[in-house]
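We emphasize that the prediction below concerns an isolated chain of 309 residues; any contacts that depend on oligomerization or on bound cofactors are therefore not represented. The input was used exactly as deposited, without trimming of termini.
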Amino acid sequence: MRVWLPYDTVPEALTRLGPLPDGIELDVLTPGAAPATGAADVEYIGLPNSGALQAWAALTPTPLPNLRWLQLASAGFEHILDKVPAAVGVCNAAGVHDTGTAELALGLALASLRRIDRAAVDRLSERFDQASADSLADTRVLIVGYGRIGAAIERRLAGFEVASVTRVARTPRTDPVVHAVAELPDLVGQADVIFIALPGSPDTRHLVDARLLARMADRTLIVNVGRGVVIDTAALVAENGRIRAALDVTDPEPLPAGHPLWTAPWVTLTPHVGGLIGAFNPRYDALIRTQLARLAAGQPPLNIVRSPS
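Result of the prediction step, given as a token string:
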């Protein structure tokens, strides 16, 4: 079985992955082009974490008649699924980004609540402002998108003495109690901090719209580490600071020059970097290692988000 993997050289790949299972032949997938050989029989391709769409687009002019599986380095897959032929199965990197994204979610919340972002700006003008700030302690937290990342956020909240945690997901359940998305209008008004960890889809697009924002209490903080399209950006801007936001993802993304979110004092921004941490490489390596072992053993890979037709 021939595989193409996102490493700079074959020796680097072997150093990071260790010995390959019997029957696996490896080529490296360098940015911008397919490997010089092997297109006719490659069966598994692993995409890089950054520039996955560009990497896949660079491959599409090349006939890949035996490609069976495309491995994403992201947990999200909606951005690429419709660009991959139905005959090719798609696997995501569920679990690889849980830690980094959950860490950033709490970092964004703390930066906004404790005014750390404002202090960083004040430092440039040597301004010493001891304004009072908020904290996570004693807050009522709502996690919207209680999957692996949502659960990782809750685990990291354990030491911050929050007053309560309420969970919402597209699939409600009872252990622990997870509410349905349809209950959001009745829940958002009871939250001080709302973490969003939902994927982007037709069902989640503009879930947080003007009507839902209107039900939130003044100074509610929304932390979005899911997808930017979950929030109606125009509706959020129209709140003009009544609702605060800490966003790793936006709609549009990246924000164009002059967009009001760049300069709004009630917004904390990071440039979609939830999974861009040092722990990513060894965790993605471990996933690829597992996938190759399963494929070599005749087993299906993990994290299938769409099976090949």
